[in-house]
Amino acid sequence: MILFYMVVLNNILGFALFGIDKKRAENGRYRVSEASLILNAVFGGALGCLLGMKVFHHKTKKKKFTITIPLLLILWTVFLGFCLYQNYHLVVTEYDYNYSEAHNEVEAAEGNSTEEKVQQGKGLRIVQISDLHNQIFGFQQSDLLDRIEKCNPDIIVVTGDVVDQTHTCYTFSKDFFKGAVEIAPTFYVTGNHEKWLKGEALEGFIKDVEDMGVQYIDDKVVRTEDYIIAGVAETTLGDDLTDVYTSEDKESGKLKILLAHEPAYHDDYEKSGADLVFTGHIHGGQIILPGVGGLLSPGCSFLPEIYEGEHTFGETRMYVSRGLGNSVLPVRINDYPEIVVVNAEY
User: Fold this and answer.
1) How far apart, in Å, are the Cα atoms of 81 and each of 78, 90, 97, 334, 341?
2) Which one of 121, 238, 240, 307 is most buried, counting C-beta atoms within 10 A?
3) pTM beyond 0.85
């Protein structure tokens, strides 16, 4: 979205600069430098500059402009097409999780009995959405919601940063939640951007999505017949999480799911006793370098160790979504926006 706004503004500015320069030339006044006009086109305003040349009949006989401006327009068209594909090509990543196998692997590694602890033959198909950042995927988020529906989820878990600090139009996020609850029960915890947007507007947003039927579970636990799902608020990260689940929860044999935003606290998530943990925040590193990994975390640290995928910590399995929207950079490269699906057997 930031890149889009920049290009739109530069095109408006480019068109205006050609008009201003033409008027000043006619009146013999101080001119806009040719370097400034070309520089505007270099930074994305090529279409506005070309329209300004045609509408105002200005610089149309100078090869510096008649060749450079159309060439820059072609380059920007290709670049923007590439960026749009990288930013909006939704992919679905599926993982399989088996409760018994996950726990027995740990027991075997510790030299204990590998007798199956639980095998109830139940299944839960979980779809994770993270870091939407008010990104738009079709009218009223129809493209995103269609892809989620085709995943046939039993539940949808949303792990923070649905809104964005820099463009706080909640409509796009509300459209997502409105459609999500019609597909499956939807659980939501906040991220750092929600934390930064404290105030009445955010409180109103939370109330609106709860009224839609979204289960907002910051520092809450929801117990169902088949699974227990807990949420960790962004403001709680770093606190002791050993009491998230009661002793009864831990002995129940039910699948214990934990939603949080940042994967860096995986040691705390493991201590909580969660079987499955869902996080996001890293955006896949924005640019994924083949053979190297994600380039940049939201905290501007290079080559983060954990940036996507499935990670095992003891008996806890953590899934890190690449998310949907952008963070530090306005474009993703080799890092398509991701819907995560986990097929859990327990």
Assistant:
1) 5, 15, 37, 14, 28
2) 307
3) yes
Smallest CA-to-CA distance from 118 within 128, 107, 127, 126 is with: 107
Residue type, 7: V
Residue type (1 letter), 208: D
Helices (H), the chain: 2-27, 34-40, 46-56, 63-66, 68-88, 99-109, 142-150, 171-183, 192-196, 200-212, 247-251, 266-272
What DSSP state is assigned to residue 30? P
pLDDT tens for each residue of 133-178:
999 999 999 999 999 999 999 999 999 999 998 877 899 999 999 9
Cβ neighbours, 10 Å, residue 86: 17
Which two tokens mark 190? 């906040």
Which residues are CB-neighbours of 116 under 8 A, at least 6 positions away?
Answer: 100, 104
**How far apart, in whole angstroms, are the C-alpha atoms of residue 89 and residue 81?**
12
Instruction: Dump the DSSP string for 248-262.
Output: HHHHS--EEEEE-S-
DSSP type of residue 333: B
Task: For residue 63, count CB atoms less than 10 angstroms from its CB and return exposed for 0-12, middle for 13-18, buried for 19 or more.
Answer: exposed
